[in-house]
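Exercise 3.2. Students should predict the tertiary structure of the chain below and write it as structure tokens, then compare their answer with the key that follows.

Predict this chain's 3D structure.
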Amino acid sequence: MEVYEVKKVTEPHKISVEVPGSKSITNRALLIVALADGKSRLTNVLFSDDSRYFLNALKSLGFEVEVSEAEKTVTIQGLGGRIPCGKQKGQALATVDVGSAGTAARFLTAFLGLSEGRFRLTSSEQMKKRPMKELLLALEELGAVIDYEEEEYHFPFCIQNKGWKKQEAVIDVEKSSQFLSALLISSVLSKQDFSVSVRGTHGMAYVEMTLRIMEQFGVNIRRDNGRFWISKDAAYRPMDYRIEPDLSAACYFYAMSPILHVPAVVRHVHTGCMQGDIQFLSVLEDMGCSVKETEEGLTVYPPEHMLSGGRWDLSAFSDQALTLAAIAPFASDTVIMENIGHIRYQECDRIQAILTNLRAMGIACSEENGAVTITPGTVHACEIETYEDHRVAMAFSIPGLAAEGFRIRNPKCCAKTFEHYFDVLEQSVIHA
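Answer key:
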């Protein structure tokens, strides 16, 4: 297995980087423009394993898709909810492979499960283990018929719908808010007024993002007390749309500021960003950093002395639990991350990944009832196990910039969202 050796930064300079477009916004926009009636052009598109699976899925379904990775653009001819692939009586109209892309898996399953026709969906072994049942149960209630090829309520399966049975759904989001976002985006396929009721509160910042993007494309959803209403006349309009920089990726570089004691700016990231991970900057402020809006982008400045410890609820931006865990050993006091139990069900069991890698670094830590407690200490050289999880690889590269002897196993797993992460790290931080 390939291993990347993180080089300790001995002469740190101001960090100034540009990160790819947002994965979350890219994949939402790809489905929305396919549902729109007309041609749309997306710019600053993220090209990664996840988005390429999504693009290939749309091509498999017969959509006209023009891609320029060099210019970071995608043009798609939407058909107002119609799926262009031809009719094949009794057989799947198309086979769609979602790989390990959770957003593609959930969003495309809802799209196809609410559309006329029969479709086959396959995935990677990793995605076969991730939660899908809550979404699939909701789709069955709405009229989808699903034939499972292996384990029930997991990939692979064939899905078809010959007509909606109901005009309301209930969805549980405790394992993934993507279930709700998936239903909301494809709710425009309904021929009648439609409503979705939600159980749980996990990941609602991502749902807020979904609603904002839907609104930008012309679909407004009324909501009240955990229920969402979509009008039968709702329809997406085609448009040119620029995708924000990926805040999840930006946060790794912001977290380097207090570790290396230098300012860090991520270009084109500004106040008003719709991504929930912007809340991580508030955590850094609580720990003693300062954040200022500059023309170049939001800039994080390190604290005068050490990072402060503290207790934070990360339920609304849980991708940053790994990032906070990676810098917690350098704090002056204990760091406690609460309400992150659901991250056990992401690309890997991220709680176990946090505990295993911190202990390999020589850092005491524990978990109880979805909360992780980390006691700062001296970081030792170690090899980071990534569990094929891009966010584990990127987050746990950060302490290696301040401590000798960090090795990252399987660094290519970053291709899921940020395939050139380690190149950017070397050019903009290590050898800046």
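Discussion points: The CA atoms of residues 54 and 104 lie 6 Å apart. The domain at 23-242 is CATH 3.65.10.10 (UDP-n-acetylglucosamine1-carboxyvinyl-transferase; Chain).
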